[in-house]
Design goal:
Dihydrodipicolinate Reductase, domain 2; three-stranded parallel β-sheet; 2 domains; nine-stranded mixed β-sheet; Rossmann fold
Length: 279
């Protein structure tokens, strides 16, 4: 199927679901068309370029009585799941500070991710969303306040339209603070939780393989090793199970919308140079 013939998937009963791996500005359109064709949809992150588009997508999946999942593959792999359990179980006491750093050198200035119209933004939309999502699932809460600062290297042709780096902070209802970085200019790959009686981290945190976990108790460092199944296979298996049981996926449209709600607030903070409160 092509862009022009996509809607014909409605005529093919052998297709149960579609995976939308398109530039960000096309996520909403093709997700909605997929649901109108009667199919379940897995859409890449970010779910869409705006909260308004996310709302339209959520309405479409409800009308179609199908399932919508956002491709947050990390939520389906054992290291991330272990980090979440350690935080929830308070293995080291209450969480106090979360640190999430995500970045890589973007390279070719001609790619669509560096155009505002298609990407919706720069590093924040592409890689910083890992940090936003991680801070949310590690805290188990939605942020009440955010503050962001932006920097792009002057004269760098890659950043004519979108940002290179954003640092941002999030405040959560329990008092947990998150300090995060998103960058297209340097390699950053760590999620860390600082709790009352110790810390635990993943570094690298979002690679497709060879993830590593370390636990810190005073001067003692413990390496924890877990099995590493294929993230994408686990994610797609979960969507198939959700579709078969008619239950919402773990990373559903609401999860994707919540990330975009935070990202929009961070961009607003960057623009106004003030903290932004989320209702």
């Amino acid at each position: 199927y092509s862009y022009d013939t996509f809607d014909r998937i409605a005529e093919n009963p052998e297709i149960d679901a579609v995976y939308i791996v398109l530039p960000n500005n096309l996520h909403a359109e093709y997700t909605i068309r997929g649901h109108r064709a009667g199919k379940h949809v897995l859409v890449e992150k970010p779910m869409a370029n705006t909260v308004a588009d996310c709302d339209t997508m959520i309405a479409a999946v409800k009308q179609a009585n199908r399932q919508l999942a956002v491709a947050y593959r990390l939520r389906y792999e054992p290291y991330t799941q272990a980090m979440i359990k350690m935080a929830r179980d308070q293995e080291f006491g209450k969480t106090k500070v979360i640190v999430c750093d995500s970045g890589f050198n973007i390279g070719n200035p001609g790619q669509w991710r560096l155009t505002k119209a298609m990407g919706g933004g720069g590093s924040m939309m592409d890689i910083g969303i890992y940090s936003v999502n991680a801070a949310r699932y590690l805290s188990g809460e939605e942020p009440t306040e955010v503050f962001g600062m932006e920097y792009s290297t002057p004269g760098d042709p890659r950043f004519k339209e979108v940002e290179e780096t954003i640092t941002f902070q999030m405040r959560f209802p329990s008092g947990v603070l998150a300090n995060c970085v998103s960058s297209y200019g340097t390699s950053l790959n760590r999620f860390r939780v600082h709790a009352e009686k110790g810390s635990f981290e993943m570094e690298p945190a979002y690679n497709r393989r060879d993830l590593q976990m370390r636990v810190f108790r005073g001067s003692t460092v413990e390496h924890r090793h877990l099995r590493e199944p294929d993230h994408f296979a686990a994610m797609m298996d979960h969507l198939a199970e959700s579709a078969g049981n008619n239950t919402a996926p773990l990373t559903d449209g609401v999860d994707g919308r919540n990330d975009m709600r935070v990202i929009e607030a961070i961009y607003e903070s960057v623009k106004t140079k003030r903290p932004v409160t989320l209702a």
